Amino acid sequence: MLASPARSLAEEESVLIQVGTVTGESDGEIDLPVLLDNCAGVDSVQFDLNYDSAALVYVSMTPGDLFSAEYTVANADVPGRIRIACASALGLEGKGTLLTLRFQLLSDAGSAVTITSGIVTRVDADYNQSAAYVSISDGGVSVGSAPVPQSAVTPWIPVSPTPSPSPTPEVTATPEASASTTIASPEIVSPPATRLTATIYYVGGGLLLAVVALIILLILRKNKDRA
């Protein structure tokens, strides 16, 4: 008994953002409406609208009949994502077209168009702002009689080509520095100190003996002359 009133209250308060579903021809352009329902008192709406950038190219945005043109902004800097923001000083009174997006079709595949990051606020009679419940109904673009494809990624991530690996450069070994041949300078061989000392000793001793013998000979001759 209590669950049903609570569910009904949530459904009544929920603001519905609905993306239309349209059909076009390859290489042509289509207009995709985005609608807002159960939006009494809504003073701001923002969300991301996602699509396959390989199938669609964003061309332009035309404000709908709910918010003033100067307060309806579409930012499509990133391929595959359009950021929408709308605002008003006073709350809305009823449902209608929030905006219309024009796309060019690039292929026969078509694309789902989905909504993420939806935020909606309301104001009451005293201008008190509060967050509102948000319901989302996705749509898309089909080509010819083909159905709208399922969304592959939300938001779509552009597929980058896999880079081919570049050959690993061969590392050339640095030649080792050849050891330089050092020619040793011939050493000056000094005569052993002991040999030099012995020579001096023998020469000095010989001279001393010669001097002593000369003195003795002079003394003998002197004595002989006296006799």
Unreliable sequence segments: 1-11, 178-183
Number of domains: 2
Would you tell me the overall average pLDDT? 79
Regarding CATH, which class of the largest domain? Mainly Beta
Task: Classify the beta-strand content into a percent band.
Answer: 35-45%
Structural class: alpha+beta
Give the SSE order as H and E letters. HEEEEEEEEEEEEH
**C-alpha Rg, in Å?**
54 Å
End-to-end gap: 177 Å
Helical content, roughly? Answer: 10-25%
CATH structural fold name of the largest domain: Immunoglobulin-like
Which word captures the global form? rod-shaped
Number of strands: 12
Tell me about the biggest sheet? 7 strands, mixed
CATH architecture of the largest domain: Sandwich
Q: How is the quaternary structure best described?
A: single chain
Count of discrete alpha- or pi-helical segments spanning 4 or more residues: 2
